[in-house]
Predict the 3D structure of the following.
Amino acid sequence: MTRKILTGLSSAAYEHPFDRKALASLQNMPGVSLLLKKINEYGIDRLLRLQSLGSEIRISSRNFPQLHQTFVETCEILDVTPLPELYLFRGTGHIQTYIVGVEKPLIGINLDAMEWLGADELIYVFGHEIARIKSQHMVYHQMAIVMPSLKNLLSSTTLGVGGLVASGMELGLYNWRMMASFISVVVDYYTDETRRFTR
C-alpha cells in the first residue's frame, strides 16, 4: 500500500489565512522579539525537552515498529526532514499528543492514542503535530506554553504591572493558537488525498 508523497510541500499551501494574520499581529506586538530572546536564553527549550526525556519512552523501529513506521510515513507524506523524535507517555483516559523543541522537535503521544487509533487515524494525529514543525511555529508554540507561568512571575515581582503587560501578550498568543488550530482541517484534506492515492 503506497501513499502520495507531497514532495516540496510548502507550509503556505495548508496554513489558514486567519493563522497567518494572527501570527503577523503577534510578531508586530511590541516586546515579543525581546521575550523570545529571553525565553531562549533561560533554556526553556532544553527544560521542556528534558521533561520528556526523563519520564517517557522513546519510540523506535525496535520497540514499537508499527507506531514508528506510521510516524515515519507521516513525515514522508508531509516532506519533513530530519525525522523528529517520538516519545510515548502514560495513558490519560483520552487521546493526547504534544510537541516541544525549536532546534530539535520532539513529539509525544500517549498510550491511549497508540492503542485506540488505527494507522489512518494516527497519520491524521501525527500530521497535525508535524505540520507545526513544517510551519516553523514551534518558537511561538513554546512561548504559549510558558506564558501563564511567566505572567505570574512578572506579576509577583513587579507589583502587578508586568502581569498586565504579559496579559496582552498572552491574549495575542491565545488568539494565534486558536487560529493555528485551523491547520487540522488542511491536514485532514491531505489525509483524504493520501487515501485517494492509496493502492
